[in-house]
Every structure is written in C-alpha cells, then in structure tokens.
Amino acid sequence: MKRTVLLLFVAVLLLNFDVGNNRATMTDPTQDINSKDVIRILSSPDLYDLATDWANYFSVEIQQSSILVNNLNNEVKDSKTIPKNHLVLIPEGFDKDLCHEAPWKMIIGRDPIVPIVSSSNPLLESIKQSGVSLDDFNQILSNSEQITWGQLLDCESHKNIQIFIEDNQSVITTLSNFTGVSPIEPGNSGLINGDDLLSLINNNPYAIGFIRLSGVISSVHQSMVKGIELLPIDKNGNGQIDHIEDIYGSSQSFLRGAWIGKYPKALCQNLYVLSQEEPTHETEIAFLKYILTNGQDKLKHISISSLVMSERQANLARLPGVLLPQGAIMVAKSGNKVALISLIAFILLLMIGIISSNYRRIQRTKTSGSVIPAFITLASIKTPKGIFYDKSHTWAYMEKDGLVKVGINDFLQHVTGTLTRVTQKSSGDHVRKGERIMTISHHGKHLHIKSPVTGVIKSENTILATDPAQVNNSPYSNGWVYAIEPSNWIKETQLMLMAEKHKEWLNDEFSRLKDFFQISVYKHQAQFTQVVLSDGGEIKDQVLSQFGPEIWEDFQTQFIDKSL
Prior knowledge:
Elements: H1 2-16, E1 25-27, E2 38-43, H2 48-62, E3 66-71, H3 74-79, E4 87-91, H4 96-101, E5 104-118, H5 124-130, H6 134-142, H7 149-153, E6 162-166, H8 169-179, E7 191-192, H9 194-203, E8 207-212, E9 228-230, H10 251-259, E10 268-275, H11 282-292, H12 296-301, H13 309-317, E11 322-323, E12 329-331, H14 337-368, E13 375-376, E14 388-390, E15 394-398, E16 404-408, H15 410-416, E17 421-424, E18 430-431, E19 436-442, E20 445-450, E21 455-460, H16 470-473, E22 482-486, H17 489-493, H18 499-524, E23 539-540, H19 549-560
Parallel strand pairs: 2-3, 2-4, 6-7, 6-8
Antiparallel strand pairs: 1-12, 4-10, 5-8, 5-9, 5-10, 11-12, 13-23, 14-15, 15-16, 16-22, 17-19, 18-21, 19-20, 21-22
Helix pairs in contact: 1-14, 18-19
C-alpha cells in the first residue's frame, strides 16, 4: 500500500510539473498574487511597534501593498465591535471581552506577565528555593497592611514587601485574573512606567514588580536585564520550587517551560488577530500567512513566545490554500484545472494513507484484544487504590503472607510501548531501594528500573520470560515482576505515594515528560512536533517506541534517573 501511494504521489507531481504555463504554482506561504488590496490594522498601544514592523517588512520584502496601522481607540473597546475590513492586533489582557466576542480570531503568540525581584535581594536564595504561591500573591495584593518577607518566607526578616506594577492594561487585567484581586486597590503601590519600574526594583532590593516579560529581556543579548531576576512561582503551592517548576534559570528555559505548562496559564496571555469576518482578500490572507511563518521570528526579538510548529500549521490550514509537508502552499490560479486536479488527488492520497494506517492499527489492536488510545492522558492512566507507588515508576503491594509484590506503573508502560523483554534478577538475590532491579526492553532498546523496596527476592514472575507484554496488558496483576520479603517496609512506604497523591505527582511527570521531548528529542530528530502537540498538548501513546536507542538513553538519564 505504501508503495502504491508513493507511486501515485510521484505521478501527480510529474503531471503537475509538465503543463507549462498552465500549471499550479508552488509558493512560499508569505507570497500572494494580488497587490491591490489595502490592509487596515488596529493595534493595542503595546503592540503598535510590532504591527508597524510586520507591516513595513511585508510591504517591502514580501509583497508591494498598502498597510495602514493605527492605535486601537477607546470607541472600539467600548462598543466591542470590530470595524469592517480591519484586522485588530491585541493581547488578551488588553480587552478580554473584545477577544471573546470577536466573530473571527486567531492566536499568533503569547506574552507572559512575570513577577521580578532585584538580584541584590539578600533573601534571593531562599526565594528561589521556596518561591511565591498564588495564596502568597493574593495575600500581598489584598492586604492593606504591608506584608514582610519574614511572614512570606517564614524567616526573621522584618523588611516590608513593596509592590510595583507596570502601567499597562494587559498587566493589570492579567494580574487581576490570576490573583482575583485588583492590583490598584487602596494599599497597593501606584502604576509605574516599565523603565521606571526596573529602576525602582534595582534601587529597592526588597520590592516585587509585575511586568511583561518583554520589558525585562535585553533585545540585543536575549537575556535578563542587569540586576533583575524572575521571581519563581510555587505553582503547586507545596512551599518549594520542585524540579518540575524550576524554569527560572534563563529566559530561554522560562519561555520553554511556559509553553509546556510549567508556568501559570493565567499569566500567559494570548496575542490575537481579530476580524469581523473570516479574511477573504488575497493580500490580507498573505499578510496573515506571513505573520504565522517568517513573522514569528520578530516575536522572539521582543521576547514574546512564538507558536510551535503544529500550531502554525493548524492556523495556516484555516486560511485559503493547502499546507504541504514542506510548509509550501499550492495556489490554484483561475482556469488552472490541472492544478486543481493535482490538489484533489493529493488530498485523496492523504486520505488513502490515513485509512490504510488506521486499518493496520485496528488489526493490530484486535490481535492484542485491546484498543490503544491515541494519547496518554492523566485520565487514561490506571491508579488502583490500596497500592503504594514509588517515584521510580514502580509499585509495591503487601500480600497477606507478608511478601511484597512489585511491578512497573501504568504510566511507564504507556510511554515505552509493548515490551519485548524483561530481564529479571533471581530468587534469593538481595535488593536495596533505589538500586537497579530489572531491565525492560522494546526491540533491543532498554531502560533500567530501580527497586521501590529493600529486601530479598522470593520469587519472580516466570511468565514474563515468554510473555513480557503482560506488563503492558495488566501491570498491576498478571504483569507483576517480583515477590520480595521486605526488610524496611514501614519506613520505606512513608516515602511512597497512595492513589490520589500519585495522581498529583503524575500530573507533574506529564509536564516533565513534555519538557524531555522538547529538549532531547528535538536535539536528535526533526519529527519532534509529531510527538508534542500544540500549546504543550498531549503525548502520543507508546511514544518512546518511535525513537532509537539514543533517545532511550536520554530518557534513562534525564527522566527515569531524575525521578528519584
């Protein structure tokens, strides 16, 4: 089937390239045919420079056209009505109602609002270790009396926390949505211009500022401005910055962490382009395509998070034209029947490939007796009650005879895919908690798993020698690996998690898993966007089975070994 589809595809391409001047054209997404239309843009004040930069570059370098950029006035904000034949460029926090009510809208980037402190704050190390939680921020902003750092960090400091907030509507609205407290109520500091705010923070080491990330990143070096640190947010409210929350070391690690969900979503406002109706003018469409492709680079220069590739492709698909695998757009000119036929044939070939792939998947799942979900989600992970779960991605359960059965948790087997071998120790072997206890393999690629308990192996599950897939089919019953006589059961179970706490921990593991694939997989393979979907989205089931030994090695050292 694959060979047939490939031959048909090649035939269509050859036909398309052999029709002389009447063939469909392959163009870059930023190119277009018509240069007569005028594009009218209304921009919020904080995005006016970006809109102007986009307009100038598009007009000069991409396509000669007339683009008019004006500031979004109060009349539009108050009426919540977008003028006809206009594009509105706006951050979500500037006017959430206008964004919500827009008949047509498209996300084009993200702009985090960040708390900052001075690098000279004497309590900086303690702040980095414990962070500041949502409840802490709520207390700071809602209390008419000043809160001290001692109250916040449970230390002896009597220094008051002074708050400075950037005089920016997006910052005010976003901060209010995050904390549920208006940041300009009596008792709070007044609003400050961005540059002045940085000076105040530098001169007041015990102050906290709230500002757009783009205001604290050097456009030249793409690093934090001198004397300023990002204030870590204790997202899960446990009183410390866990490994999963530690994204504040550099601007790049922060932006990466914000994208995959490690930063409070309420502080990551979306940037939208709005319109009264779906854009139809060719020049307007070409400009939007430019924003979603080459124009994304200009977001990075002002420290706004650009869209991931799958998001860009999804948005491009909403505009006229079909997105080809290499990112090109096929444009069918008027009267060009060959191009139109080629376009239809290409779509049919894609459908044939999808149907064929789904048919083979269904046949495979029929033989295994179960249907594999497309993605791994917290809801799809089995977490039976009454079992102890260890951070080595193993479980332990004491039977009535006092022996402890151990195995691999459902999360890990979903990530690895169907196991083809489980290498076990022998009865009588002594094992210690945290030491290697087994090796699981998938067609020669393997992971070393550590023991959740200390004790002596009394028996091993011999079924796994001939049917290792039992670990996948029933990880908590037929897929058990050892029965161990424990020697330190009471103390070691105090470090383990029961069902609900295990689910909370798995939620962090999902974020860490996305982080792993962003860093390690992208380093080795360009198919990264096929693994982690838009906006930090879902992870494919059996995802690790798609990659080679180098990714498994990274997964061992960067994920499994760091779970402990």
